[in-house]
Amino acid sequence: MAQIKLSNLRHSYMPAPKGPDDYALKEIDVTWRDGGAYALLGPSGCGKSTLLNIISGLLTPSEGQILFDGQDVTTLPPDQRNIAQVFQFPVIYDTMTVGENLAFPLKNRGVDPATIKRRVDEIAEMLDVADMLGTRASGLSPDNKQKISMGRGLVRDDVNAVMFDEPLTVIDPHLKWKLRSKLKELHQRVQATMIYVTHDQTEALTFADEVVVMQDGEVVQIGTPVELFERPQHTFVGHFIGSPGMNVLPCEAKGDRALFEGHEVMLEGPTHGDGGRTDLGIRPEYVGFGDTGIPAHVTKVSDIGRHFVVSAMVGNTALKAVTEHSVPEPGSEVFLQFKPEQSRVYRDGWIATQERAQ
Protein backbone atom coordinates (compact mmCIF):
# COMPACT_ATOMS: atom_id res chain seq x y z
CA MET A 1 0.00 0.00 0.00
CA ALA A 2 1.08 3.60 -0.42
CA GLN A 3 0.59 7.15 0.71
CA ILE A 4 -0.97 9.07 -2.19
CA LYS A 5 -0.30 12.79 -2.54
CA LEU A 6 -1.86 15.15 -5.07
CA SER A 7 0.18 18.34 -5.34
CA ASN A 8 -0.98 21.54 -7.09
CA LEU A 9 -3.18 19.42 -9.33
CA ARG A 10 -5.27 21.07 -12.05
CA HIS A 11 -6.85 19.71 -15.20
CA SER A 12 -8.58 21.18 -18.23
CA TYR A 13 -9.98 19.35 -21.23
CA MET A 14 -9.23 22.48 -23.28
CA PRO A 15 -5.86 22.76 -25.06
CA ALA A 16 -5.31 26.36 -23.92
CA PRO A 17 -7.34 27.16 -20.77
CA LYS A 18 -7.62 30.88 -20.07
CA GLY A 19 -9.26 31.04 -16.65
CA PRO A 20 -10.66 29.04 -13.70
CA ASP A 21 -13.91 28.28 -15.55
CA ASP A 22 -11.95 26.38 -18.20
CA TYR A 23 -10.69 23.85 -15.63
CA ALA A 24 -12.60 20.67 -14.77
CA LEU A 25 -10.33 20.37 -11.72
CA LYS A 26 -9.17 23.50 -9.97
CA GLU A 27 -6.06 23.45 -7.78
CA ILE A 28 -6.15 20.39 -5.52
CA ASP A 29 -3.75 19.45 -2.72
CA VAL A 30 -4.68 16.25 -0.91
CA THR A 31 -2.70 13.59 0.96
CA TRP A 32 -4.13 10.14 1.67
CA ARG A 33 -2.13 8.21 4.23
CA ASP A 34 -1.07 4.62 3.73
CA GLY A 35 -3.83 2.21 4.79
CA GLY A 36 -6.59 4.82 5.23
CA ALA A 37 -10.21 4.64 4.07
CA TYR A 38 -11.25 7.72 2.09
CA ALA A 39 -14.21 8.94 0.07
CA LEU A 40 -14.50 11.43 -2.77
CA LEU A 41 -17.99 12.87 -2.36
CA GLY A 42 -19.89 15.28 -4.55
CA PRO A 43 -22.69 15.62 -7.11
CA SER A 44 -22.45 14.49 -10.72
CA GLY A 45 -20.15 16.73 -12.73
CA CYS A 46 -18.08 17.96 -9.76
CA GLY A 47 -14.83 16.36 -11.00
CA LYS A 48 -14.77 13.08 -9.03
CA SER A 49 -14.33 10.84 -12.07
CA THR A 50 -11.73 13.15 -13.61
CA LEU A 51 -9.71 13.00 -10.39
CA LEU A 52 -10.09 9.22 -10.19
CA ASN A 53 -8.86 8.84 -13.79
CA ILE A 54 -5.85 11.05 -13.04
CA ILE A 55 -4.89 9.00 -9.95
CA SER A 56 -5.26 5.71 -11.84
CA GLY A 57 -3.25 6.96 -14.84
CA LEU A 58 -6.03 7.00 -17.42
CA LEU A 59 -5.63 10.76 -17.68
CA THR A 60 -2.54 12.99 -17.40
CA PRO A 61 -3.24 16.22 -15.49
CA SER A 62 -2.67 19.62 -17.12
CA GLU A 63 -0.66 20.71 -14.09
CA GLY A 64 0.68 19.28 -10.83
CA GLN A 65 1.98 15.97 -9.56
CA ILE A 66 0.73 12.61 -8.28
CA LEU A 67 3.11 11.01 -5.78
CA PHE A 68 2.95 7.43 -4.47
CA ASP A 69 5.14 7.18 -1.36
CA GLY A 70 7.07 10.20 -2.60
CA GLN A 71 7.64 8.80 -6.10
CA ASP A 72 6.34 10.95 -8.96
CA VAL A 73 3.97 8.78 -11.02
CA THR A 74 2.28 11.63 -12.91
CA THR A 75 3.26 10.36 -16.35
CA LEU A 76 3.26 6.62 -15.61
CA PRO A 77 0.64 4.47 -17.39
CA PRO A 78 -1.98 2.58 -15.33
CA ASP A 79 -0.17 -0.76 -15.45
CA GLN A 80 2.86 0.78 -13.72
CA ARG A 81 0.90 2.38 -10.86
CA ASN A 82 -0.14 -0.89 -9.24
CA ILE A 83 -3.73 0.16 -8.53
CA ALA A 84 -6.79 -2.08 -8.36
CA GLN A 85 -10.12 -0.61 -9.45
CA VAL A 86 -13.71 -1.67 -8.78
CA PHE A 87 -16.19 -0.08 -11.13
CA GLN A 88 -19.90 0.79 -11.06
CA PHE A 89 -20.72 -2.33 -13.08
CA PRO A 90 -19.19 -5.64 -11.96
CA VAL A 91 -16.12 -6.61 -14.01
CA ILE A 92 -16.05 -10.40 -13.92
CA TYR A 93 -15.87 -13.27 -16.41
CA ASP A 94 -19.25 -15.01 -16.60
CA THR A 95 -17.74 -18.16 -18.13
CA MET A 96 -15.40 -18.61 -15.15
CA THR A 97 -16.27 -19.87 -11.70
CA VAL A 98 -16.15 -17.59 -8.67
CA GLY A 99 -12.82 -19.12 -7.66
CA GLU A 100 -11.34 -18.66 -11.13
CA ASN A 101 -12.45 -15.02 -11.18
CA LEU A 102 -10.80 -14.32 -7.85
CA ALA A 103 -7.63 -16.12 -8.91
CA PHE A 104 -7.32 -14.44 -12.31
CA PRO A 105 -5.44 -11.23 -11.23
CA LEU A 106 -2.86 -13.42 -9.44
CA LYS A 107 -2.51 -15.98 -12.26
CA ASN A 108 -2.08 -13.10 -14.69
CA ARG A 109 0.99 -12.00 -12.68
CA GLY A 110 2.53 -15.47 -12.43
CA VAL A 111 1.88 -15.97 -8.72
CA ASP A 112 2.55 -19.53 -7.53
CA PRO A 113 -0.47 -21.86 -7.11
CA ALA A 114 -0.13 -22.24 -3.34
CA THR A 115 -0.21 -18.47 -2.78
CA ILE A 116 -3.14 -18.13 -5.18
CA LYS A 117 -5.17 -20.74 -3.28
CA ARG A 118 -4.37 -19.12 0.06
CA ARG A 119 -5.35 -15.61 -1.10
CA VAL A 120 -8.50 -16.79 -2.89
CA ASP A 121 -9.64 -18.72 0.19
CA GLU A 122 -8.93 -15.71 2.44
CA ILE A 123 -10.85 -13.24 0.26
CA ALA A 124 -13.73 -15.68 -0.33
CA GLU A 125 -14.06 -16.12 3.44
CA MET A 126 -14.06 -12.33 3.99
CA LEU A 127 -16.73 -11.86 1.30
CA ASP A 128 -18.91 -14.75 2.54
CA VAL A 129 -18.68 -16.52 -0.84
CA ALA A 130 -16.51 -19.48 0.18
CA ASP A 131 -19.39 -21.87 -0.62
CA MET A 132 -19.64 -20.41 -4.16
CA LEU A 133 -16.07 -20.94 -5.34
CA GLY A 134 -17.13 -23.65 -7.78
CA THR A 135 -20.20 -21.76 -9.03
CA ARG A 136 -20.17 -20.26 -12.52
CA ALA A 137 -20.27 -16.46 -12.22
CA SER A 138 -23.04 -16.07 -14.81
CA GLY A 139 -25.56 -17.47 -12.31
CA LEU A 140 -24.78 -15.04 -9.49
CA SER A 141 -27.10 -12.30 -8.22
CA PRO A 142 -26.04 -8.66 -8.92
CA ASP A 143 -24.82 -8.12 -5.36
CA ASN A 144 -22.73 -11.30 -5.40
CA LYS A 145 -21.28 -10.33 -8.77
CA GLN A 146 -20.19 -7.03 -7.26
CA LYS A 147 -18.73 -8.89 -4.29
CA ILE A 148 -16.59 -10.91 -6.71
CA SER A 149 -15.58 -7.71 -8.50
CA MET A 150 -14.50 -6.27 -5.14
CA GLY A 151 -12.66 -9.50 -4.37
CA ARG A 152 -10.71 -9.26 -7.63
CA GLY A 153 -9.53 -5.82 -6.49
CA LEU A 154 -8.59 -7.04 -3.01
CA VAL A 155 -7.00 -10.40 -3.78
CA ARG A 156 -3.61 -8.87 -4.58
CA ASP A 157 -1.69 -7.80 -1.49
CA ASP A 158 0.89 -5.76 -3.43
CA VAL A 159 -1.32 -2.93 -4.75
CA ASN A 160 -0.69 0.73 -3.86
CA ALA A 161 -4.43 1.42 -3.50
CA VAL A 162 -7.87 0.03 -4.23
CA MET A 163 -10.23 2.51 -5.88
CA PHE A 164 -14.01 2.12 -5.91
CA ASP A 165 -15.95 4.09 -8.53
CA GLU A 166 -19.64 4.26 -7.48
CA PRO A 167 -19.56 0.47 -6.75
CA LEU A 168 -23.09 0.20 -5.31
CA THR A 169 -25.04 2.21 -7.90
CA VAL A 170 -26.57 -0.84 -9.61
CA ILE A 171 -27.25 -2.73 -6.37
CA ASP A 172 -30.81 -2.96 -5.01
CA PRO A 173 -31.32 -0.47 -2.13
CA HIS A 174 -32.12 -3.21 0.43
CA LEU A 175 -28.80 -4.92 -0.35
CA LYS A 176 -26.64 -1.79 -0.30
CA TRP A 177 -26.32 -1.65 3.47
CA LYS A 178 -24.98 -5.23 3.49
CA LEU A 179 -22.28 -4.44 0.95
CA ARG A 180 -21.42 -1.15 2.69
CA SER A 181 -20.93 -3.01 5.95
CA LYS A 182 -18.93 -5.72 4.22
CA LEU A 183 -16.64 -3.17 2.55
CA LYS A 184 -15.98 -1.42 5.86
CA GLU A 185 -15.20 -4.78 7.47
CA LEU A 186 -12.86 -5.66 4.61
CA HIS A 187 -10.92 -2.44 5.04
CA GLN A 188 -10.50 -3.04 8.75
CA ARG A 189 -9.16 -6.53 8.03
CA VAL A 190 -6.85 -5.90 5.07
CA GLN A 191 -5.78 -2.31 5.97
CA ALA A 192 -5.42 -1.35 2.32
CA THR A 193 -5.45 2.25 1.12
CA MET A 194 -9.00 2.58 -0.23
CA ILE A 195 -10.56 5.51 -2.09
CA TYR A 196 -14.32 5.36 -2.59
CA VAL A 197 -15.95 7.65 -5.16
CA THR A 198 -19.66 8.40 -4.71
CA HIS A 199 -22.41 11.01 -4.86
CA ASP A 200 -24.21 9.29 -1.96
CA GLN A 201 -23.45 10.85 1.43
CA THR A 202 -24.57 7.74 3.32
CA GLU A 203 -22.09 5.56 1.44
CA ALA A 204 -19.27 8.07 1.95
CA LEU A 205 -19.89 8.74 5.63
CA THR A 206 -20.36 5.10 6.63
CA PHE A 207 -17.26 3.89 4.77
CA ALA A 208 -14.63 6.59 5.08
CA ASP A 209 -12.38 7.71 7.92
CA GLU A 210 -12.01 10.99 6.03
CA VAL A 211 -14.14 12.51 3.27
CA VAL A 212 -13.08 14.87 0.48
CA VAL A 213 -16.12 16.94 -0.52
CA MET A 214 -15.99 18.37 -4.04
CA GLN A 215 -18.02 21.00 -5.88
CA ASP A 216 -17.41 22.38 -9.37
CA GLY A 217 -13.92 20.88 -9.61
CA GLU A 218 -12.84 22.23 -6.24
CA VAL A 219 -12.25 20.61 -2.85
CA VAL A 220 -14.45 22.57 -0.43
CA GLN A 221 -13.68 20.57 2.72
CA ILE A 222 -11.70 17.56 3.90
CA GLY A 223 -12.64 16.04 7.22
CA THR A 224 -14.08 13.22 9.27
CA PRO A 225 -17.83 12.62 9.02
CA VAL A 226 -18.24 14.30 12.44
CA GLU A 227 -16.27 17.38 11.34
CA LEU A 228 -18.29 17.74 8.14
CA PHE A 229 -21.54 17.57 10.07
CA GLU A 230 -20.61 19.63 13.11
CA ARG A 231 -18.71 22.48 11.44
CA PRO A 232 -19.15 22.75 7.66
CA GLN A 233 -16.55 25.05 6.15
CA HIS A 234 -18.82 25.90 3.23
CA THR A 235 -22.59 26.19 2.82
CA PHE A 236 -22.42 23.51 0.10
CA VAL A 237 -21.07 21.01 2.64
CA GLY A 238 -23.79 21.97 5.11
CA HIS A 239 -26.48 21.58 2.46
CA PHE A 240 -25.09 18.41 0.82
CA ILE A 241 -24.41 16.50 4.05
CA GLY A 242 -27.29 15.89 6.43
CA SER A 243 -30.95 15.11 5.90
CA PRO A 244 -32.40 17.66 5.92
CA GLY A 245 -29.39 19.81 5.11
CA MET A 246 -28.21 22.87 6.99
CA ASN A 247 -30.48 25.93 7.06
CA VAL A 248 -28.79 28.75 5.10
CA LEU A 249 -30.57 31.96 6.07
CA PRO A 250 -29.90 35.50 4.77
CA CYS A 251 -28.67 37.76 7.53
CA GLU A 252 -26.58 40.74 8.55
CA ALA A 253 -23.62 40.13 10.84
CA LYS A 254 -21.52 42.17 13.21
CA GLY A 255 -19.21 40.93 15.93
CA ASP A 256 -20.63 37.81 17.53
CA ARG A 257 -24.25 38.57 16.56
CA ALA A 258 -26.33 38.07 13.41
CA LEU A 259 -29.57 39.83 12.54
CA PHE A 260 -31.99 37.38 10.92
CA GLU A 261 -35.42 38.68 9.85
CA GLY A 262 -35.07 41.44 12.45
CA HIS A 263 -34.12 39.06 15.28
CA GLU A 264 -30.72 38.92 16.96
CA VAL A 265 -28.93 35.57 16.98
CA MET A 266 -25.88 34.81 19.13
CA LEU A 267 -23.08 33.20 17.09
CA GLU A 268 -20.40 30.63 17.94
CA GLY A 269 -17.82 33.43 17.97
CA PRO A 270 -16.84 36.73 16.34
CA THR A 271 -17.34 37.28 12.62
CA HIS A 272 -14.39 38.16 10.40
CA GLY A 273 -14.25 39.75 6.96
CA ASP A 274 -16.79 42.01 5.33
CA GLY A 275 -18.60 42.39 2.04
CA GLY A 276 -20.20 39.73 -0.14
CA ARG A 277 -23.36 37.73 0.52
CA THR A 278 -23.87 36.98 4.21
CA ASP A 279 -25.80 33.96 5.48
CA LEU A 280 -26.52 32.39 8.84
CA GLY A 281 -25.93 28.65 8.86
CA ILE A 282 -27.47 26.31 11.43
CA ARG A 283 -28.41 22.66 11.16
CA PRO A 284 -32.06 21.71 11.81
CA GLU A 285 -30.87 19.47 14.66
CA TYR A 286 -29.77 22.60 16.56
CA VAL A 287 -33.02 24.54 16.15
CA GLY A 288 -35.23 24.04 19.20
CA PHE A 289 -38.57 25.27 20.56
CA GLY A 290 -39.18 27.32 23.70
CA ASP A 291 -41.37 29.86 25.47
CA THR A 292 -39.30 32.71 24.05
CA GLY A 293 -37.13 33.20 21.00
CA ILE A 294 -37.68 33.87 17.30
CA PRO A 295 -41.38 33.82 16.39
CA ALA A 296 -42.23 31.42 13.57
CA HIS A 297 -45.26 29.93 11.80
CA VAL A 298 -45.29 26.12 11.38
CA THR A 299 -46.19 25.10 7.82
CA LYS A 300 -45.60 21.35 7.88
CA VAL A 301 -44.61 18.49 10.20
CA SER A 302 -43.09 15.31 8.73
CA ASP A 303 -42.82 12.11 10.77
CA ILE A 304 -39.80 10.21 9.41
CA GLY A 305 -39.68 7.56 12.14
CA ARG A 306 -36.60 8.48 14.16
CA HIS A 307 -37.75 12.09 14.60
CA PHE A 308 -39.96 14.83 13.22
CA VAL A 309 -38.94 17.46 10.68
CA VAL A 310 -40.76 20.73 11.30
CA SER A 311 -40.96 23.23 8.42
CA ALA A 312 -41.57 26.82 9.49
CA MET A 313 -41.54 30.40 8.22
CA VAL A 314 -39.77 33.27 9.97
CA GLY A 315 -40.95 36.36 8.15
CA ASN A 316 -40.32 35.57 4.49
CA THR A 317 -37.68 32.90 5.14
CA ALA A 318 -38.31 29.14 5.31
CA LEU A 319 -36.31 26.89 7.60
CA LYS A 320 -36.44 23.44 9.17
CA ALA A 321 -36.07 22.07 12.70
CA VAL A 322 -35.59 18.48 13.83
CA THR A 323 -37.20 17.35 17.08
CA GLU A 324 -38.07 14.12 18.84
CA HIS A 325 -40.51 15.55 21.39
CA SER A 326 -42.97 18.41 21.83
CA VAL A 327 -43.95 18.45 18.17
CA PRO A 328 -45.99 21.55 17.25
CA GLU A 329 -49.10 21.36 15.10
CA PRO A 330 -49.10 22.61 11.49
CA GLY A 331 -50.47 26.14 11.43
CA SER A 332 -49.37 26.92 14.99
CA GLU A 333 -47.21 29.85 16.13
CA VAL A 334 -44.01 28.90 17.93
CA PHE A 335 -40.75 30.37 19.24
CA LEU A 336 -37.49 29.03 17.82
CA GLN A 337 -34.19 28.91 19.70
CA PHE A 338 -30.89 28.57 17.86
CA LYS A 339 -28.03 26.82 19.66
CA PRO A 340 -25.32 29.55 19.77
CA GLU A 341 -22.32 27.21 19.45
CA GLN A 342 -23.83 25.81 16.25
CA SER A 343 -24.84 29.18 14.74
CA ARG A 344 -22.28 30.62 12.34
CA VAL A 345 -21.97 33.16 9.55
CA TYR A 346 -20.89 32.40 5.98
CA ARG A 347 -19.64 35.02 3.52
CA ASP A 348 -20.07 34.09 -0.14
CA GLY A 349 -20.47 30.50 0.99
CA TRP A 350 -17.33 30.22 3.17
CA ILE A 351 -17.34 30.13 6.97
CA ALA A 352 -16.66 33.53 8.52
CA THR A 353 -16.94 32.99 12.27
CA GLN A 354 -14.25 31.96 14.71
CA GLU A 355 -14.86 29.30 17.32
CA ARG A 356 -15.25 30.86 20.74
CA ALA A 357 -12.30 30.12 23.05
CA GLN A 358 -13.13 27.44 25.59
TrEMBL record:
Its EC number is 3.6.3.20. Residues 4-241 form the ABC transporter domain. GO terms for cellular component: ATP-binding cassette (ABC) transporter complex, substrate-binding subunit-containing. The keyword NAD does not apply. InterPro entries: AAA+_ATPase, ABC_transporter-like_ATP-bd, ABC_transpr_FbpC, ABC_transpr_MalK/UgpC-like, Mo/tungstate-bd_C_term_dom, OB_MalK-like, P-loop_NTPase. The keyword Nucleus does not apply. PANTHER family: ABC TRANSPORTER ATP-BINDING PROTEIN, MALTODEXTRIN IMPORT ATP-BINDING PROTEIN MSMX. This is sn-glycerol-3-phosphate import ATP-binding protein UgpC. It comes from Ruegeria denitrificans. The lineage of its organism: Bacteria, Pseudomonadati, Pseudomonadota, Alphaproteobacteria, Rhodobacterales. The gene is ugpC_1.
